[in-house]
Amino acid sequence: MSKSVLKDHVRAQAEDRPGVYRWLAADGRVLYVGKSVRLRSRLLSYFREPDGKVERLMREADGVAWDHLPNEFAALFREMRLIQAWRPEYNVEHKRKRRFGFVKVTREAAPRLLVVGRVVSDGACYYGPLARTGWLADAVNDLARATGLRDCRADVPMHYGDQLEVFASGRPPLCLRGEVGSCLAPCAGLCTSADYRQRLAAAQAFLERRSKAPLAELSKALAAAAERREFEHAARLRDRMARLEKLQAHLSGFRGQAREMNLVYPVAGFEGEDRIYMIRRGRLHSDMARPATARDVQRAARVVARVFRPAPADREAAMGAIAASETLLAVKWFARHPQERRRAVAPTEWLAGQRLRWGRALSQI
Ligand code: SF4
Known about the structure:
Shape: globular
Bound molecules: iron/sulfur cluster
Distance between the termini: 54 Å
Number of strands: 9
């Protein structure tokens, strides 16, 4: 199809409203998927003296198709899902198989902090998802050191100092960390279980962005090292602080725990096409027209109750790469638009609000 015919088609049919579009090759392959809040303007911009990658795309493109959507939020998720399904040649974002990591707080006699690739139902606490790049393991290691938590293997025997049956007192720690004091050394009875739990709580408060205590301690150590003119040591402490700050920043948005992100999110749509989105554990689970009557609200309440019904524990906890990338997308959206996050409420809060608004008409909810 010639470019002028394509352009006329866009001019005649596309609306200036949110949507996703796809450029197609002559053999029907999807070459590129994009989104825009002003679809028509965006598509027409492709015909204006394209250069570089856009020029190559337009040389190959033989058709274009699009879907109008009610709002930018819907377009964001649709775009990502289409790119992940089709993996178009000209897309970069969302196409790479990103690796995600979670910080796991194990359930062991002396819990550890680990970086893992999946959330499973094992009673442990998981924080994330985070893009799994080199710095993450180092940052988690830094946090363990700053809080005195162990990082040795699971099968290293633990003997807390308050365990009467243990004859470990006087035994040296099983690794250098215990000797230099960067681990409380529960392997050698050098701390009580309460001491260890207290440090673990400090690490979790940090991961949940409730505290910066490990940073404050590092900062003190840094000042002391500088005063002693131990500049190499001071530089290492500075690097650790930078990684910990980055870790905390990356855990923003929902206090670090994906499972807390259960939201009913009302969004005003194009020309009154308002929707409510149900976000379960960070994933966009379903959506529907924003209810306008008591009957609509009753129907919506049933959908909300079904979507947020507790699932079997293993399904509830499991989170793989696709779920993680959707969760990250939602987290980034709300981090960029804090006013939107304020409008998104927990399902119980949404139901309570509807009851308040519709009163007796909703006695069935
Ligand atoms: S000092 Fe003991 S508990 Fe701490 S990391 Fe080393 S072996 Fe593990």
